[in-house]
Design brief:
Layout lengths: L5 E2 L6 E6 L23 H13 L20 H8 L23 H33 L8 E6 L1 H7 L1 H8 L3 H9 L2 E6 L3 H11 L12 H13 L3 H7 L1 H5 L10 H13 L3 H14 L13 H31 L6 H17 L16 H9 L7 E4 L7 E4 L8 H4 L19
Parallel strand pairs: 1-3, 2-4
Antiparallel strand pairs: 2-3, 5-6
Organism: Aspergillus brasiliensis (strain CBS 101740 / IMI 381727 / IBT 21946)
Protein name: BTB domain-containing protein
């Protein structure tokens, strides 16, 4: 029998060979920026800022006559350059990078900046390739074959705790036939976290005293995934309770990936409160249909979260579209001019953020309920003045004020009645 990396039982008959250990766990992109028209700087504000910068001596006079065009009208090369975020920091030896965004540079300056950046990146890549070649030569065969982590385990413990191993070793499968004939067998496993699998095997072999006192949320979720696959949920739920007690029980309201991990932990450990809070966060913060991402969350739960997310977004935006139609029909607004101006302003805001009713359709990709609430709060209000009589002057112009002039009715539509999902509706509780 080959030499194992971890020995759960010195007399164990089973070697569990783990290939492709420690893969990326729940590869969920957090904080992905929305590519929409809200990122485009207002032309008027940009020109005003440029004028102030020229007056202060920050910009040269040549920028005063610079033509400013929307980023969407540029060709692909210019669009890529204009959308890049300029940090202004390249490190020692890097090319000088102007603090100005690319959209404010002339064609010649923009081309020069791109050329310098590309040359510097090629230089860096060349140095990395040389370093990689040297590292590969030094490490020899380590980079050639994928490393395999081996665990020596007891067949009796595995079959007593896990229906998976009981079926594998007793139901006429290839591993079972070899085990019955030779008394030992090598079992393959793939894509598990090394520590998570070790902790599960420790629990199966009643080595609770060797477990760490606490683990973080991600490791706990990994352990739950391994336990669910090998059907040792009851044993792990009993042994891992102290870990849960030492975790921060507060489910985050704005971190999607962490809420997803809490949802899975709530499902595995049958924790209704955690499940409810996590599902509420996922409904509010989800930017698209929730992908499984390697977590064995039951499909009915995933489908219900996706459906409630779409429903919440649609109810929010339906109210906005209803107010827009009321402005158009004249049901809202204190006068014809008032309703006409507000209708135009609301329509322009919707177009600017890519939220026109004709374009905004389920499943609303790259849009979350929370994001849309913030967008509505940023809607630009129109300002206009009405002639009024005064005590001292015959007429004067005062800023128009009425209930509808501040889009108060749009805020009234964000009555989010969702409270989260009940775990007992999906899983039979003990």
């Amino acid at each position: 029998m080959e030499s194992p990396d971890y020995i759960l039982d010195p007399e164990g008959e089973i070697i569990i060979a783990l290939k492709f250990a420690n893969p990326v766990f729940v590869p969920c992109e957090e904080g992905r920026p929305h590519k929409d028209n809200s990122e485009v700087v207002s032309k008027e504000l940009l020109q005003r800022w440029m004028a102030m910068a020229i007056d202060a001596g920050i910009l040269e006079e040549k920028y005063k006559k610079l033509t400013i065009s929307p980023l969407g009208d540029e060709d692909e090369d210019d669009k890529e350059a204009a959308s890049e975020r300029e940090s202004g920091i390249w490190g020692i030896g890097g090319p000088p990078v102007d603090i100005l965004p690319s959209s404010l540079l002339t064609e010649v300056e923009r081309a020069a900046r791109r050329s310098a950046r590309q040359a510097w990146q090629k230089l860096l890549l060349g140095e990395e390739d040389e370093a990689g070649t040297e590292t590969g030569t030094e490490t020899g065969t380590e980079t050639g074959a994928e490393a395999v982590v081996c665990f020596q385990a007891s067949a009796k413990h595995l079959m007593a705790a896990s229906t998976y191993f009981r079926a594998l070793l007793t139901c006429g499968m290839e591993e079972g036939i070899q085990f019955q004939r030779e008394g030992t067998v090598r079992v393959s496993a793939e894509y598990w976290d090394e520590e998570a699998l070790l902790y599960v095997l420790m629990i199966i072999h009643c080595l609770h005293h060797e477990l760490p006192e606490k683990v973080d949320l991600e490791m706990l979720a990994k352990v739950c995934v391994v336990a669910d696959y090998y059907d040792v949920g009851d044993a792990v739920r009993f042994a891992a309770r102290p870990w849960i007690a030492k975790l921060d029980p507060q489910v985050p309201e704005d971190r999607y990936r962490e809420a997803l991990l809490w949802l899975w932990v709530g499902v595995f450990f049958r924790m209704p409160g955690v499940f409810k809070a996590a599902s509420l966060t996922l409904i509010k913060e989800g930017k698209e249909d929730m992908p499984p991402l390697g977590l064995p969350i039951p499909k009915p739960i995933v489908d219900e979260i996706n459906a409630r997310r779409v429903k919440a977004i649609w109810e929010l935006m339906s109210h906005v579209y209803g107010v827009q139609n009321d402005y158009l029909s004249g049901e809202r607004g204190c006068s014809f001019e008032c309703s006409a101006i507000l209708y135009g302003a609301l329509t322009k805001n919707l177009c600017m953020y890519g939220l026109r009713e004709s374009d905004f359709r389920p499943p609303f990709p790259h849009r979350s309920y929370t994001y849309l609430v913030h967008v509505i709060d940023r809607f630009r209000l129109p300002r206009w003045y009405d002639p009024r009589s005064s005590k001292y002057l015959c007429w004067q112009y005062c800023e128009h004020e009425c209930h509808d002039a501040h889009f108060w009715e749009l805020r009234a539509g964000r009555c989010f009645e969702e409270e989260g999902m009940e775990l007992k509706e999906f899983i039979e509780m003990d």
